[in-house]
What we know:
Blueprint: E1 4-7, E2 12-15, E3 23-28, H1 39-57, E4 61-68, H2 84-92, H3 96-113, E5 121-124, H4 129-141, E6 145-148, E7 151-154, H5 170-177, E8 191-195, E9 215-216, H6 218-230, E10 234-240, H7 244-259, E11 264-270, E12 273-275, E13 278-279, H8 290-295, H9 300-308, E14 316-317, H10 320-341, H11 352-366, H12 372-384, H13 390-404, H14 420-435, H15 439-451, E15 454-459, E16 462-467
Parallel strand pairs: 3-4, 3-10, 4-5, 10-11, 12-14
Antiparallel strand pairs: 1-2, 6-7, 7-8, 8-9, 12-13, 15-16
Helix pairs in contact: 2-3, 4-6, 4-7, 6-7, 9-10, 10-15, 11-12, 11-13, 12-13, 14-15
Zinc ion (ZN) binds next to helix 7.
Subunit structure: Monomer.
EC number: 6.1.1.16
GO molecular function, one term: ATP binding
Amino acid sequence: MSFYVYNTLTRNKDEFIPYKEGKVGMYTCGPTVYNYAHIGNLRTYIFEDVLKKSLEYVNYKVKHVMNVTDVGHLQSDGDEGEDKMALGASREHKTVWEIAKFYEDSFFEDCKKLNIKRPTIVCRATDHIQDMIDLIKKLEEKGYTYVSNGNVYFEIDKFEDYTKLANISIDELKAGSRIEIDPNKKNPLDFVLWFTNSKFSNQIMQWESPWGRGFPGWHLECSAMSIKYIGEYLDIHCGGIDHIAIHHTNEVAQSEGALGHKWVKYWMHAEFLVVDSGKMSKSTGDFLTVAKLEEEGYTPLDYRYFCLQSKYRKQLVFTFESLTDAKKGLKKLKERISSVLISIDENDIVNAEKTSGYKEKFAVCISDDLNIANAFTVLFDVLKDDELNNKEKAILVEDFDKVLSLDLMTTQDVDSNVDEELINKLIIERAQARASKNWARADEIRNEFITMNIELLDTKEGTTWKKK
Ligand code: AMP
Ligand code: ZN
């Protein structure tokens, strides 16, 4: 079966053919650890998690590498603005190292709650300074760099096809990135590889280098670490769409400049999560976190389910109303699954042909550039299918949850506030249905009681009930 992905590089849904058969090298840009991850960031990480699990579902062996940015990221994503880590440190009166540790830990706690699997390798920028220096040396040997006012720059005019990923003209790129005039640059789009003589003279994170004491430019870490851990040929590189024009464009220039050949085969980008007021921004401090959603009574998996309801390439508008709808939807789905799970008959025989047919259908959906909406339709078809017994249904739900990761096999807690009025109404309706030999309705009501974890007791005095 072929797997298709939308490739930013070709602007096309391409068939996925990795460099090495059966294996995937995947690199995803990780968090800048100067504040909590907001739910917009986490939408991108959920997309990447689903992508990885989908590839694994269709039997690829995936090596997933993700960086943690703990140095060099300025407010602008380019070479302007304040250092994000230093800003975090002064905001909280802590050292940059304390800030980095705290927010890295909190990021992975959020990921855990959202069932985002930890990458095969997580690598911090500050642990890879030598790899970055070596990459600059290579670029220097090949004539891509110049030193100006103490900083080392990448000269984009030396790199053929600098705009191929962004797919727009140099002028549009310049206009889009609103670059401050920097007299040290030959071309305003040139970018810093190594800062030595910048405005951050009191920067705490500094290292020795052939060009003087300083620190690396932000883009460099992703090129250096992905080449180190995955090699010179990378199958998939992901991130949010904001990274296309600057960060990923600069990564391509650095990596392909140093390697002398094409580097990434498939670039995949998640669209933004937006709120009514526009983009959710970490730097303004005005954003929603997983902890905030929990405070408001939502579970992290409600949010995962909310994200899975829309295509990763479409902008997603966040409102609490739509999150509430997702919460209700997930609850209903889990209740339906719970009623299957508690009614499994151990003597049921599993028909492998029937289950593998559904697995195949599910695989076709996720292989179509992650068509998760259709994948959910397959799940609902399974739950509705009278030809499947409960054991077969449970096997399929468990299998699909390898990708969806919504804890579908954990039985739904029934609200502790039992709706007595509803129960009494249903008991009367069940008695009427039985009296009129409407066995279908009587069975339906019985199933509703199973879902609610309510046991009925038929006695001489009538029907009573208790919670199981
Ligand atoms: P950062 O920690 O700012 O470097 O961003 C981490 C990831 O989140 C990157 O892949 C960004 O492209 C992505 N991102 C940033 N803002 C949003 C948003 N509002 N919606 C979706 N992804 C985002
Ligand atoms: Zn990156």
